[in-house]
Every structure is written in C-alpha cells, then in structure tokens.
C-alpha cells in the first residue's frame, strides 16, 4: 500500500542517506586500495622529482651522492611507466572485492519509499540471480 506523503519524504531521506553512506564506503575502499597498490609508483616519482635539480633539488645526502639529474629523470619515467599496470591491478582488486562483498548491491532504489513492505538489502535473501548467459 502507498505511504503517506510525510512518511514517503522521511523514507526518501533515509534511503538517500543510506545510499550516500554506501557510496562513501565504496569511495573509501577504492581510495585505500589504490593508495596501497600505487604506493611504489608514488614513492619512485616522489624521489625522482625531489632529487632533480630543475624541480625541487633537495639537499638530502642521497640526492647528492646517489641520484643525479639523469637518474632522477629515469626514476620519474619508471614511475609513470609502472603506473599503468598498477592501475589495472588496483581496479581489478577493487572490483573483485566489491563483488565479493556485494557492495554495489546495497544501493536501494527510491521506489522503496513509495510503498510499504519494501525490504532492505540485508533483509532480503541473498540468492544468486539467474543470468541470461548461464
């Protein structure tokens, strides 16, 4: 049966807040995964830019004794080269984790706010849906 207008508005706000919470959870998970997987690239590019004389030219001991301009340029290039495969790995890891945790299935449609008797994602039975290609 349809809900009253005030109840419909309240449930719309609850569902909207719940969807925003799941969106922020997905965003946080993606940020953590991408940061951990891309950490080697971040470190290599950072040291390359830090020790290059035309960029930051740090006075650190390792910049003076180990890294000159050509090796700093090589670090910058290496960092950007290894970024592409690591981006693919990070996205695959996020997608497999989101699929395993069923994070994208927890977003609720706003039609639940219109009628009584709607069920939330954790209340419905988690039966796998039939797919057309199976």
UniProtKB/TrEMBL annotation:
Q: Name one GO molecular function term.
A: PDZ domain binding
Gene Ontology CC? plasma membrane
The membrane-spanning stretches of this chain are 21-49, 74-94
Look up and give the membrane topology term: Multi-pass membrane protein
Q: Where, per UniProt, does this protein localize?
A: Membrane
Signal peptide positions are none
Q: Which UniProt keywords apply?
A: Membrane, Transmembrane, Transmembrane helix
Q: Which family does it belong to?
A: Belongs to the TMEM88 family.
Instruction: Tell me the protein's name.
Output: TMM88 protein
Q: What is the lineage of its organism?
A: Eukaryota, Metazoa, Chordata, Craniata, Vertebrata
Q: Which gene encodes it?
A: Tmem88
């Amino acid at each position: 049966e349809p809900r009253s207008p005030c109840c419909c508005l309240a449930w719309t706000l609850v569902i909207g807040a719940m969807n925003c919470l799941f969106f922020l959870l997905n965003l946080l998970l993606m940020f953590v995964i991408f940061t951990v997987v891309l950490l080697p690239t971040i470190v290599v590019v950072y040291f390359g830019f830090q020790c290059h004389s035309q960029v930051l030219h740090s006075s650190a001991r390792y910049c003076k004794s180990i890294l000159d301009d050509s090796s700093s340029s090589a670090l910058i290039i290496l960092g950007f080269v290894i970024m592409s495969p690591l981006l693919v790995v990070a996205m695959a890891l996020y997608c497999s984790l989101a699929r395993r945790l069923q994070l994208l299935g927890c977003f609720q449609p706003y039609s639940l706010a219109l009628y009584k008797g709607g069920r939330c994602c954790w209340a419905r039975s988690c039966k796998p849906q039939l797919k057309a290609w199976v």
